[in-house]
Amino acid sequence: MKALRLSLLLMTLFSVLFLTKCSCSEDDPKPEPQKTLVELISKQWKIRTLTVDGQGVTDNIANFRLTLNSDGPNPTTYGINLGGLAYNFAPATSGNWTVNDAGTQMTFSGQTVQAQASEENIRITYTVPEEQDKNTPTVVFDLIPNE
What is the per-residue pLDDT for 21? Predict the structure, then answer.
């Protein structure tokens, strides 16, 4: 009797395991791999707001564009169209770029600036060097995707 009960229990267990295994289809889509910060911010950006020492700037911001390019999770090149804007956080209007994993620093052609980067917003803060402006103003670019 004990052997019969054990046999039935084992058959039930194997049946449940078999049905569980067979209920999964190989056609089930695999989840999309999570995108890296680089992949999320690699697109074209425009200015939402620009401040210089806390004062809003509206002149010549409409045509500014920052384009960040990548090869998958690896940052490659950037391009900036200043559109007449006098301020530029990068030493050139094109070159290579990187961002740290936390999104708190970005480097454009070797010049590092403070940042807060996410898929929806990039805020870049830098101080203009004294050799460019003796007042050394702090400039904040608040960028949003150019959609």
Answer: 53
The answer to whether 117 and 105 have CB atoms below 8 angstroms apart is: no
Q: From the centroid of its chain, how far is CA 103?
A: 8
Question: β-strand 65-71 against 55-56: which pairing, if any?
Answer: unpaired
More confident residue, 15 or 85: 85
Nearest-angstrom CA–CA distance, 35 and 74: 11
Q: Give pLDDT tens digits for 71-100.
A: 999 999 999 999 999 999 999 999 999 999
Beta strand segments in the chain, E: 44-52, 55-56, 65-71, 74-81, 94-99, 105-108, 111-117, 122-127, 138-145
| Cα angle: 138, vertex 97, 58; to 5 degrees | 35
Using DSSP, state whether 107 is helix, strand or coil: strand
Helix (H) or strand (E) holding 45: strand 44-52
Please tell me the pTM assigned to this model: 0.77
H-type alpha helices, 23-108: 37-41
- Nearest alpha-carbon partner for 68 in 38, 43, 35, 33: 43
